[in-house]
Amino acid sequence: MPGSGDFMRFLTCHTKSFSLLIWRSYCQHVVPGIQGYNAGFNPTKRALDRADKEFDLIGPKASFQGSALKLEDAPRLKLPEVAFIGRTSVGKSSLINAILNRNKLVRTSKKPGHTRLINFFNINSKMYLVDLPGYGHVEGLGSKRGTEHFVKVAETYLKERAGKELRSVCLLIDGKVGVKKNDLIAFEMMGEFGGPFQVILTKMDKLPKPRHQEVIEAVYKIKEQFSLDNCFPHVFAVSSTEKTGLSELRYFISLNVGIKNSEKW
Ligand SMILES: Nc1nc2c(ncn2[C@@H]2O[C@H](COP(=O)(O)OP(=O)(O)OP(=O)(O)O)[C@@H](O)[C@H]2O)c(=O)[nH]1
Ligand SMILES: [Mg+2]
Predict the structure, then answer these.
(1) 175 in the Ramachandran plot: left (φ > 0), alpha (ψ -120 to 50) or beta?
(2) How many domains does the chain have?
(3) Residue pLDDT, tens place only, 8-31
(4) Does residue 17 lie within any of the structural domains?
C-alpha cells in the first residue's frame, strides 16, 4: 500500500499515547481486571441484550450527515466516531446497516470500490459511524489507483481524528477470502497509526460452520505476529446477511463511544 509509512510522520507521540490511554480504559471496562491484553471478551447475555435494545432505539433515528473527501468538508457537529476500513467489497457499508438494523441507510454494491468518500452517519446525535473507501481493486480504477485513493483519503482522516473524535477503527477482513497481502499492509498501517482498532471477520455465512474456528484462529495468529498493543485482543466475527455476531459489536461500540459502561449494563 503506497504511502502507508506516512502515518508515522503524521502522528505525534501525544495523540498516540492519548488514544491508547482511552483504549486501555475501554479494555478495563470490557474485561475487568485485564492482565496484559490476552484476556477473553465475554460480555454477559444481559449486556448484549441491552446493547441490542440500545441500537433498536437509535438505529431508526440514524441518518446520513454528510460526505467528505477532505476533512475541511466533514460535518461541523463533533461527536465520538467509530470508523470502518478494509478491502473493497469486504462489507463495510453492509455492516453499518446491519449494526443499525437498517436495510438501505448506507449504499452497498457488488462492484468493488463503491464507497469513494468519507461518509458520516449520525446515530441519534450520540456518535458517528464513519464509512470509508476500501483498499484494493476498485471498479474503473484498478488496484493501484484504488489503493492510492484509499491511502489519500484514509490517511488524512485517521491522522486528524486520532486521539480526538475517533474512538476506534474497525478493520474488516473477509472471513471467506481470509487475510490477503493488502490486509497485512493494513495491519502495519494500523500499527503506525497507533490509535485503537479491532479486527472484524465479515461474511461468516459464506463459510461452513466447522471452518469458523480455524479462520478465526488464523487471524489471531496474524495479530500475534504483528503484536500491536493498539489492537483489541478479541477478534469479532459477523455476518451482515444472517445478522450474526452483531450484538457483541454493538456492545463494544457502545463502550467505545461511552453510551454505556459495563458496570451499569
Ligand atoms: N454473503 C454475504 N454478503 C455480504 C455480507 N456483507 C456484505 N455482503 C455483500 O458484499 C458486497 C459488498 O458489500 P459492501 O457493504 O458494499 O462492501 P464495502 O466494503 O462497503 O465495499 P466498497 O464500498 O466497495 O469498499 C455486497 O454485494 C453485499 O451484499 C455478508 O455478511 N454476507
Ligand atoms: Mg462501501
Answers:
(1) alpha
(2) 1
(3) 444 444 555 666 666 666 665 554
(4) no
Q: Which three cell numbers stand for residue 210?
A: 466447522
Dist. CA 184–CA 259, nearest whole Å? 32
Residue 263 lies in a domain: no
CA separation for the pair 44, 86 (Å, rounded): 29
The whole-model pTM stands at: 0.89
Rounded to the nearest angstrom, the distance between the alpha carbon of 111 and the centre of ligand 1 is 9
User: Average pLDDT of 236-248?
Assistant: 96
Q: State the residue range of the domain holding 120.
A: 41-257
How far is residue 258's CA from residue 220's CA, in Å, rounded to a whole number? 27
User: Domain for residue 214, yes or no?
Assistant: yes
Counting from 1 in the atom list of ligand 1, the atom nearest the Cα of 115 is: 23
Q: Cα separation of 192 and 186, whole Å?
A: 10
Residues with CB under 6 A from ligand 1: 86, 88-94, 108-110, 112-115, 133-134, 202-203, 205-206, 239-241
Q: What does the alpha-carbon distance between residue 155 and residue 144 come to, in Å, rounded to a whole number?
A: 16
Give the tens place of pLDDT for each residue, 89-129. Answer: 999 999 999 999 999 999 999 999 999 999 999 999 999 99
Contact between 198 and 230 (Cβ < 8 Å)? no
Rounded distance, CA 156 to CA 22, Å? 21
CATH code (residue 131): 3.40.50.300
Reading the block at residue 13, the C-alpha cell is 507521540
